[in-house]
Amino acid sequence: MIPMNLHQTGALRSLTLFAATAALGGMAMGQDVTGDGVAKPLGAVTADDLLDGVGIEQHLEAMLPLDASFLSAAGAEVALGDYFDGERPTILTLNYVDCPQLCSMQLSQLTEAMAAIDLSLGEDYRVLTVSIDPRDTPEKAAGAEERYLSDYLFISDKQDVARPEPAGGWSYLVGDKLEIDRVATAAGFSYRWVESQGEYAHQAATILCSPRGQITRYLPGLGLESPETLHTALLEAGEGKIGTLFENAFLNCLIFDSTTGQYTTDAIMLLKIAAALTAMSVAGGVFFLRRGEAQQGSLAAPAAGAAGGDPSN
Questions:
Q1: 86: closest CA among 183, 168, 209, 195?
Q2: Backbone phi and psi for residue 132, each to the nearest 5 degrees, phi listed first
Q3: Helical residues (DSSP H) of 73-159, grouped into ranges
Q4: 185: helix, strand or coil
Q5: Separation CA 260–CA 226 (nearest Å)
Q6: What are the pLDDT tens digits along the chain (313 aa)?
Q7: pTM of the complete model
Q8: Looking at residue 135, what DSSP letter applies?
Q9: What are phi and psi of 106, to 5 degrees?
């Protein structure tokens, strides 16, 4: 595993502080930010309070606990491993249904990015959201599933992109705290309940997993301003099982910058590829040149014999 604390990522902290500040702004205006009908007093909590003990540590190459037990949106008992079929990569997020801001911001931006790429939900990959709130119910999860699936299809339709029916493509799981924490710990996701606010303090990360349930990439924060980043991360997570031959070969030319959450071109690899193509071109040119000379020689020999005639005549 390669640990990397995303608290060091300025963009992620800024996004989380933005959500915290917005919540504080709601208190200053006397708004209910917890859903219990009671506005919390100004100054009761600060942004730093909300971030205390909260973070995401990258556990690259870690395996998720595939035997962790949850309930699906349909109320059926399922294991985390049921959502890893060995063929399609999975996008994992940890959220909760009643999150006042950050979760819906993250999942909405993820939905928009998914609608903008040429890989199709359900067919090429799937999304798995695990609720961090043990109070969430299958009924709540079903509502969240329907919302984001509908948004995905609506945005795709607006962009004139035909999508196959993504039935089962996005699954929202609920469970008890023990099982939730098994997944959160494996993913390096630290969160906590803030009693004074009646909500969870957490950060946001889109976690890419291989078809076998191994963590391959973190896209920190909302981090999906560029749909191409999600597209590339899915190809990488797919272990070459999705995408075209060219797309998978092109991954060798890219490196991931964890500070920006973006893929950048590896100039050295491009130079190696350019050199290899040049060598192939030269070799091909020499081959065809020699082949042409050989053909011309074989045609010239009979012609020379005909010009000399038969000496017996």
A1: 209
A2: -90, 0
A3: 102-116, 138-158
A4: helix
A5: 11
A6: 444 444 344 444 444 444 444 443 433 333 444 444 444 454 455 666 667 779 999 999 999 999 999 999 999 999 999 999 999 999 999 999 999 999 999 999 999 999 999 999 999 999 999 999 999 999 999 999 999 999 999 999 998 888 988 888 999 999 999 999 999 999 999 999 999 889 999 999 899 999 999 999 898 767 566 788 899 889 988 875 544 444 444 444 545 455 555 545 554 444 444 455 555 666 666 666 776 666 666 666 555 555 555 545 5
A7: 0.67
A8: T
A9: -65, -50
Q: Where are the domains of the chain?
A: 6-252, 266-298
Strand segments, DSSP code E, in 164-277 are: 170-173, 189-190, 192-194, 199-201, 205-209, 215-220, 254-257, 262-265
Taking alpha carbons only, the member of 179, 187, 216 closest to residue 204 is 187
Which helix (DSSP H) or strand (DSSP E) does residue 78 occupy?
strand 77-79
Pick one of 2.40.30.90, 3.40.30.10, 3.30.2400.10, 3.30.210.10 as the CATH number of 6-252. Answer: 3.40.30.10
The encoded tokens of residue 290 equal 């020699």
Q: How far is 61 from 59, CA to CA, in rounded Å?
A: 6
* Residues in Cβ contact with 150 at an 8 Å cutoff, skipping those fewer than 6 apart: none
SS3 264: strand
Other CB atoms within a 10 A radius of the CB of residue 69 amount to 15
Amino acid at 129: T
Residue whose tokens read 């109070």: 135
The distance in angstroms from the start CA to the end CA of the chain is 90
C-alpha dist (Å) from residue 196 to 102, 191, 311: 18, 15, 116
Kindly calculate the radius of gyration of the chain based on its CA atoms and give it in whole angstroms.
28
What is the Cα–Cα distance from 96 to 100, expressed in whole angstroms?
9
Q: How far apart are CA 106 and CA 100, in angstroms?
A: 12
